[in-house]
Amino acid sequence: MRTPAPERPLDLPRMASEAVAELRRRAPLPPGETSVSLRRTMAWQRDPLGRSLEAYARYGPIYTHRVLHRPVVAMIGPEANHFVTVSGAEHFSWRRGMFGEELIPLLGDGLITTDGEYHDRARAIAMPAFHRRRMDDAVAVMVDEAQRAVERLPVGGTADLYGWARDLSMSISMRALLGIDPHDGDRGHAFAEAFERALAYLDSPIWSMPLRGPGTPWARLQRARRRLDAMLYEEIVRRRREARDGGDILSMLLAARDEEGAGFTDRELRDQVCTMLFGGHDTSSSTLSFLLYELARNPDALARVREEEQRVLAGADPGVDQLAHELPELEMAFDETLRLYPPVWFGPRLSVSEFEFAGYRVPAGTHVTYSAWVSHRLPDVFPDPDAFRPERFAPEARKAIPKGAYMPFGGGRRICVGKRFGHLVVKSVATVLLRQRDLALPAGHRLQIDKTPTLSPRGGLPMIVGAGG
Prior knowledge:
The protein is 52% helix and 10% strand. By secondary structure, it is α+β, with helices and mostly antiparallel strands. The chain has one domain (12-466): CATH 1.10.630.10. A hairpin with a 5-residue loop joins strand 11 and strand 12 (456-457).
């Protein structure tokens, strides 16, 4: 199948041409603050949750705001989420939305950045890589790497648990996804460093991303990507030549075929692997950090999680069945963490056809976004929305959650293919850590959140580490 047409990255000439086109079009949009204002754009970037909740209270489930030169239609709430991802999904392109143009320069044409038949074919080829036997192997890697990482934590002092989680999730991803030993001296370090440097582009200030030339975030991304690509293609060529199953996800992707017997090309493999690294590393480390933060703040919930682990596992290593089905207290705490801090916190699209929602018609060619983060904090859907209450996800309570109200990993055909892998990473590491270490927040610590590319603790997550056990 033909590779998707390339998307031009957002640069200053493109911004200018889009601004001119928008002025000429002047299509009516839902109400909101639509005048050009760099100050307002920066205010939205600093506090998208607060500003979005204010706009929702003022305008309702659909409104317009402006990001730099672009008017963006925001759609908020369960019905809006379901419309964008399921019932009205044919009206939207993810690839041509704002997130796609930011991610394509790093991830290429992976599952996150493609639409239509190409996306569906790639998804069908990739799905078997996450079947049960492969997940059994992956959990064994997760537990082993978690044990190594716990032993490195300084007892009696303060450690940055977010930095610790990022290093650990990278080690897990390298072994379970790629079969690369993260402890293999220079090779493991060079791979992790190249990926982190490339990923740093997504943390750049929004105003700097369109800039080009030496010293810009774009130039640093290109250097890091060249290094990363050289290592990835070398690994792909080596693995094709050896033609053996290394027990990792890459082995499955190399062997997988579509209905016509065709597999991934080297370039397609590179793009899918980068996409899975992004999901398996970045989102898992953030979610794990937020889970540990909330458990440290809520000792009753932590006590229930620990008592359950001791009763069910009795000191044994967790397996897929235990992590997926036999630890409901951990599951509820995990789900509530995802409600408060959803990894896929907003879902930008470009409308490819006109649609109507909540009494407003939105023309084709409009940038649209829904937000799980905002929807998860609506008090009419989740009472006392800022509180950590795992019991919201007890079996009977969960049945009462409206369709489209809870979607931390997106929805519909675009729901994350590696969601199960990410769940297992967070739960396995939390289980190993909490059985051996006590965690406490330093006095006066206040969590601050970075928003790109996924929600994460700004400046790290300091924790006082005790011996536990």
